[in-house]
Predict the structure.
Amino acid sequence: MFTSRKEAGQKLAAKIVDLHLFEPVVLALPRGGVPVAAEIATALKAPFDILVVRKVALQITRSWQWQPLLMGIRPISCLTTRS
């Protein structure tokens, strides 16, 4: 697929630039998301920041998990699937 996260960010950025977004802001999750988001922010000439979150997983079924992303005191919920 990609040789690096930097390359992935560059290819994704090329697609996003075509959307002509108004005042975009790029947010990244630490580790793998930062190099990707940095490339996107550079291409868009957009502000860039990192979200530091804590994942707390709760197994619902074998294939679904509930994972609130804890940011400060207010959790942001999301459902994810296992691959």
In short: Strands lie at 26-28, 48-50, 54-55, 58-59, 64-66, 69-71, 74-76, 79-81.
